[in-house]
């Protein structure tokens, strides 16, 4: 840092270069022309070479001056931006980690609605399936699909789920009853049990031992749209695809499954803004006994 020029000379240099005049730079910076001239001379002496060619009533950058201006302008811009951030009022930030399909199809809309009444709360949304972002402090709350036990975390049940098979309309044309699934590729997800649905449909079938497995429910839905097989899917995640007609339910049978939960480290209880959002989200899903669609 020993080679830094006198920092007060840099705004004078940038203004003179931008305006092409020491007089105009002086007016822009509320200084006298002699002060601008003195600062430019001081900077040139520090650098050991001229930055301007002096002409009648104007100044023009030298080749060295043009190169130096690019660096100085970038440095001043970055300082200005950083200072603006520090001077701005501090805003609360809420970091949410959501299961991918729920985040893309439902959570984004909920956050947008909440922010209309809470413009000072900043949201950061990410997707994940495991609990690591919550346990290592990368997220304040998470939305996950699972059972009631969430070790080390607080949990609030958002809504219970029912699951059922979905597939493309073309594939559904060949499926009349659940027994027609024999020989059809079944798409699998680690948290969704085909054997549980088989039992609800009156079939004695074990969990499929083959067929593609998808860690991301959204990817499995897209595979079903493409006709790659029949997917077992939670109603909340499947509903947008059913509404659009991209997927259909070949059978009426469904069955209860796991639930979607809000999960969070215990420390959130000391953060009113986060707790307010959690309570609001719960009210949205429980109002009139309705689930999100």
Plain-language structure description:
It is built from 11 helices and 9 strands. By secondary structure, it is of the alpha/beta class. The strands form 2 sheets. It has a 7-stranded mixed beta sheet with strand order 4-3-5-9-6-8-7, with helices on both faces. Strands 1-2 form a two-stranded antiparallel ribbon. Helix 5 (100-117) links the parallel strand 3 (92-98) and strand 4 (121-127). Helix 1 packs across helix 3 (33-47) and helix 1 crosses helix 4. It is elongated, with a radius of gyration of 31 Å. The protein starts with 8 loop residues before the first helix and ends in a 7-residue tail after the last helix. The relative contact order is 0.12. Residues 288-293 have low confidence and may be disordered.
Termini Cα gap? 58 Å
Determine the structural class based on helices, strands and strand pairing. alpha/beta
Widest sheet: strand order?
4-3-5-9-6-8-7
How would you characterize the largest beta sheet?
A: 7 strands, mixed
Task: Round the mean pLDDT to the nearest integer and report it.
Answer: 89
> Based on DSSP secondary structure assignment, what is the total number of beta strands?
9
SS element count, helices: 11
Radius of gyration equals: 31 Å
Short structural summary:
It is built from 11 helices and 9 strands.
Topology:
Elements: H1 9-19, H2 22-29, H3 33-47, E1 52-55, E2 58-61, H4 63-87, E3 92-98, H5 100-117, E4 121-127, H6 132-135, E5 141-146, E6 154-166, H7 169-172, E7 186-187, H8 194-200, H9 217-225, E8 230-234, H10 235-244, E9 255-264, H11 272-286
Parallel strand pairs: 3-4, 3-5, 7-8
Antiparallel strand pairs: 1-2, 5-9, 6-8, 6-9
Helix pairs in contact: 1-2, 1-3, 1-4, 2-3
């Amino acid at each position: 840092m020993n080679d830094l020029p006198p920092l007060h000379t840099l705004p004078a240099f940038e203004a003179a270069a931008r305006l092409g005049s020491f007089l105009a730079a002086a007016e822009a910076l509320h200084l006298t022309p002699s002060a601008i001239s003195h600062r430019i001379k001081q900077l040139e002496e520090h650098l050991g070479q001229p930055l301007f060619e002096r002409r009648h009533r104007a100044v023009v950058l030298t080749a060295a001056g043009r190169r130096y201006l690019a660096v100085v302008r970038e440095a001043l811009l970055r300082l200005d931006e950083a200072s603006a951030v520090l001077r701005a009022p501090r805003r609360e930030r809420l970091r949410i980690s959501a299961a991918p399909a729920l985040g893309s199809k439902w959570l984004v809309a909920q956050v947008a609605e909440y922010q209309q009444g809470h413009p000072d709360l900043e949201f950061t949304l990410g997707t994940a399936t495991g609990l690591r972002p919550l346990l290592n402090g990368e997220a304040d709350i998470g939305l996950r699909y699972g059972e009631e036990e969430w070790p080390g975390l607080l949990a609030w049940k958002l809504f219970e789920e029912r699951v059922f098979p979905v597939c493309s309309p073309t594939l559904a044309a060949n499926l009349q009853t659940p027994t027609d699934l024999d020989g059809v590729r079944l798409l699998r997800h680690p948290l969704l049990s085909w054997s549980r649905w088989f039992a609800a449909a009156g079939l004695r079938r074990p969990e499929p031992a083959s067929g593609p497995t998808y860690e991301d429910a959204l990817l499995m839905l897209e595979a079903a749209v493409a006709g790659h097989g029949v997917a077992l899917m939670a109603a909340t995640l499947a509903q947008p695809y059913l509404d659009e007609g991209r997927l259909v339910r070949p059978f009426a049978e469904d069955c209860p499954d796991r639930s979607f939960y809000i999960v969070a480290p215990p420390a959130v209880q000391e953060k009113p803004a986060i707790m307010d959002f959690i309570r609001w989200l719960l009210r949205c899903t429980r109002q009139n006994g309705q689930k999100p669609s």
